[in-house]
Every structure is written in structure tokens, then in C-alpha cells.
Amino acid sequence: MDDLIERLRLLEKESKLLDLNDVERKATFSNFEKIASEFLNELEDGNTYSNAKSYASIFEIKEESENLVDISGTIYSEVMQKGINAASGGHLGYIPGGGLYTSAIGDYLAAVSNAFSGMYYASPGAVEMEYACLNWLKELFDFPKNAIGNLTSGGSIANLIGLTAARDFHKVLDQPVGKSVVYMSKHTHHCVHKALRIIGLANVTVREIELDENNRIKPDHLKELIEKDIEINLSPFLVIASAGTTDTGAMDPLDEVADVAKHYKLWYHIDAAYGGFFKLVETKKALFEGIGKADSLVIDPHKGLFLPYGIGAVLVKNREAVLKSHHYLANYMQDATDNEFPLNPADVSPELTKHFRALRMWLPMKIHGTLPFVAALEEKLLLTEYFRREIVKLGFSIGPEPDLSVTYFWYPKNDSQNEFNQNLLKAFHESGEVFLSSTKLEEKFVIRMAILSFRTHRSTIDKAIEMIKSGLRLRSAHS
Questions:
Q1: At 332, is the pLDDT very low, low, confident or very high (cuts 50, 70, 90)?
Q2: Does domain 371-478 sit in CATH 3.40.50.2300?
């Protein structure tokens, strides 16, 4: 017995190294706060992209402890300085957010408290905070108060939850899956296709709705597709519209699509992951007419609210359809199932273990209020207009006027146009001053600019224009 006590004493001494005291906590935090401050202070003047590689051996985990300065140095040089700097205002390639500092504080407090936000019983404050965020979203997007919602890891899981509810409401799995039909455009985000595959609908019939000259789906063509499918005894059940496509930033005609969906009794799902929060801007509110008619809606606070990656949201009107997919009882969880508790977030999502995401959204909204967010979104719209005005002066062609803050452009060439623009983009990436990306539209290679970081200002766009000028001179000299 004495051997057991001695062994416990030794193990306790060793394991207590994990529980830092006040002095150790302050020293540790100070070390990493230093590189965080250095990183943030360099954002405005530093490059946005580096194609330098990192190697697995650098991150090898060892038995013995290592020096804090060495550890922070590795993080700074191998993570913060390589690849796309997603916190930079110069990240204009995909759909960035920027990573609010006040949101990072929320994540820090969430990790320190280790609140378990999947069950009300475990952390009522964390769950109530999540529902406060979701209630604000319901009000913003004209959803009823009794709609169900969840803060997810991003748009992928949010879309998965909404589409699973649609599947179960229409009992798609009770018949041959191939007889059921989904309607969407070719610009629908690829995570939707992935979600359909995950939820057992890989063989579902998918119809592509034609796009107009502004890359928006045509409601009349949607009607034609549905009518034809009904005639051949298929089962239309789901139509998906986008409030801001990733490729071109287009807003589908949400209200008109809603009318079609209602007429044919289809589940209406809107992916507003990118564009949703532009509803806060007065000049764009008309584009969101009808968004409250959706059966399910996806929005990403880590895009339009500029939060760090890792927070999406889904709203669904049909509570029973969601619970059919995700509500589950386990004996060891019996203490958490008191009927007096509000609905548990774990009953609305595949996740039981759930990061306390609400704090990263709630804290910035409380500290800043909503007005600076609205101003930042309006600024991005005007910066898009400014960029388009300036880029045509350099001889570039541009796509149609975007609904939101994604635009695309290309340099016209009589021969090898795609190759020229591909090489032009490579020159931009080698420069790394700002980061742009590309897409293909009807086999045409085009360069994309997606303006959504709260740190992107006119000086950033001017910097991009100068980089584009330099790249154009370089490629023209070689062609």
C-alpha cells in the first residue's frame, strides 16, 4: 500500500506540471502575446502570401519540454509567415474574414473556462449565449422565433444540417434515392455536393438551373425543370439558392425562387454563407427580399462578421425534421435531459462535443455594437466598385457588375488568353503583396478578387493595383 501511495505522489508531482500557477501563466501568456502583437503590427505593411514550404520535422513532438522562445519562434516563422495570411487585409483571393482581435479574446476565455456548450445542463450560460446569437440572426433574416438553430464549425456543417432536415422531412430515404430531385446552379458551393454525398444522397438526381447574364439562377427555367421531372414520375423535393455565390458573388432572385418552391411544395434552402450579412447594408436590403421564406438558411459569421475561421450558423423552421436526424438519448446522459431545460445544441447538430463558439461571436458584438460591422461591409462594397473602375484603366476586361464584393477580371488576348492570365496570376503569387485567386467560367480562366476583410481599405486596393501593373509589365515582356 505504501508503494501505491508513493507512486501516486510521484505521478501527482509530474502531472501538476500541466497546471501552471499564476506566475507561470503570466510568463507563458506574455511570451505568446509578444508574437501575436508582432504579427498584428506587421499586417498592414507585410506581404499576404508566401509559397515557402514548412516541413513535418519542424513540428515533431518530443518527450521532453522545450524552450518557450523556441516554440513561439517556430509558430511565428512556420505558421504565421507562410501560406496565405488570412488575417491580412491583403487576403483578396477567397472569402476571408480577417480575424477580429476581440473574437480571439472570446476564444481564449472559452478555452480557459472549457465550458461544454453542447448541453444546457453542463453550461447554461454558454447555451443561452448561443441562443442569444441565434435569436439575433433570426430577427435579421426574418425567421420566426420558434425556428431552430445552431452555431457550427462553418458553412459545410451548417449546410449538412439543413440538407439533412430536408431529406428527412421529405422521407427521401424511404424510396429509391435516384427518384428524388435537387435543383441548384453550377455555382452552388461544392460543400453542398459533399453534404449530399455524406447524408446518403450521392445518387440523388441533380438538375442545374440555367443562369442569366449576371450569373443568377432563372426561376422560369427552374419551373420547366420541375414540370418535366413531375411528368416522368420523379420526386422533386429540394431547391437551393445562393445569397452570394463564391465564384462571382451573385445573388439569386430569392423571392422569386421562394414562390416556385412554395408552389411545388419543395424544401427551400438558401446558402448565404458568404453574402448573408450584407443584409445589414441599407443599399443591399432589396436583394434579400424573400430570404425569410426559406425553410433552412446558412450564414457564416467567420465571413461577413470578420470572425476567425470556425463559426457558421444554420436556421431551420421545421424543428421536428432537425430533431429526427440529430436528437439521441444515451443512458449516461440522463442527467442532462430534464424537460425544463431548453433544447440542447447537441440535439441540432452532429456534434456532441462542441466548442464554445458563441463567445467568439457574442463578445465582439457586445464590445463594438453592430454599427462598425455595417460600416465595414458598406466599405467593402465601395472598394469593389473602386477596384473595377481602376482595373479597366489598365486594359483589363471585367465581369458584370457584382451584387456584392466578389468581382472577376482578365486581360484580353487574341491568342492563349487563358495561359496569359494563368501566368499573370502566378506572377501575383510570386510577389505575394496581396493574394488573388482564380476560377473558370465557361472555360474562360478569370482572376478573382474577393473583398471582405475588415482590414481591407483603399490603400490595400491601391497596393493590389500596383502589383497588377508590375505583373502585367512582366508578363507582357515575356509574351
A1: very low
A2: no
